[in-house]
């Protein structure tokens, strides 16, 4: 199943909002026509009810749309902050639109590569320390042998 893009999803929700607002407008006009005979007379209380409903629908749509965008962005931001602190094991787990799914996959791939690079650097550092310890031991052994021969020679004379 192909995921919808964020744009398509927001457009669908905007169409739903438009249909809802159209329905509210139609209901308001039909109510006014039914109770006003021929003359359309809008009273202040009904206008306030209409404006409150209109504002509530627009406010609800705005909050819903904003949360659909900001929630994944907050998760991405938190994961980046943890990575900046050195936690390369952090992975994104979120459900979202097509664009956020692509970002999630790319982020998780990048995190895996950074985690592998960190493990390789650790292994390289351990190998370097072991090589220096071996080299130091190998250099000390001949020097100790030469010092022993030199002492023996000085004692023998």
From TrEMBL:
InterPro entries: HAMP_dom, HisK_dim/P_dom, HisK_dim/P_sf, HssS/ArlS-like. SMART domains: HAMP. Residues 67-119 form the HAMP domain. The keyword Membrane applies. The keyword Transmembrane helix applies. The chain crosses the membrane at residues 12-33, 45-64. Pfam families: HAMP, HisKA. It is a multi-pass membrane protein. It catalyses: ATP + protein L-histidine = ADP + protein N-phospho-L-histidine. It comes from the Bacteria. It is found in: Cell membrane. Its EC number is 2.7.13.3. SUPFAM superfamilies: HAMP domain-like, Homodimeric domain of signal transducing histidine kinase. Residues 107-134 form a coiled coil. Keywords: ATP-binding, Cell membrane, Coiled coil, Kinase, Membrane, Nucleotide-binding, Phosphoprotein, Transferase, Transmembrane, Transmembrane helix, Two-component regulatory system. This is histidine kinase. It comes from Paenibacillus lacisoli.
């Amino acid at each position: 199943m192909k995921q919808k893009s964020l744009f398509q999803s927001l457009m669908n929700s905007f169409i739903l909002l438009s249909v809802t607002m159209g329905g509210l407008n139609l209901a308001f006009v039909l109510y006014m026509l039914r109770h006003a005979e021929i003359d359309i007379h809008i009273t202040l209380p009904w206008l306030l009810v209409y404006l409150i409903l209109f504002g509530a629908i627009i406010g609800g749509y705005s909050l819903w749309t904003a949360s659909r965008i900001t929630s994944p962005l907050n998760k991405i931001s938190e994961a980046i902050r943890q990575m900046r602190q050195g936690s390369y094991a952090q992975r994104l787990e979120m459900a979202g639109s097509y664009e956020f799914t692509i970002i999630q996959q790319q982020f998780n791939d990048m995190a895996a590569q950074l985690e592998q690079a960190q493990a390789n650097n650790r292994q390289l550092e351990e190998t370097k320390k072991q090589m220096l310890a071996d080299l130091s031991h190998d250099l000390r052994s001949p020097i100790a042998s030469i010092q022993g021969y030199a002492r023996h020679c000085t004692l023998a004379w």
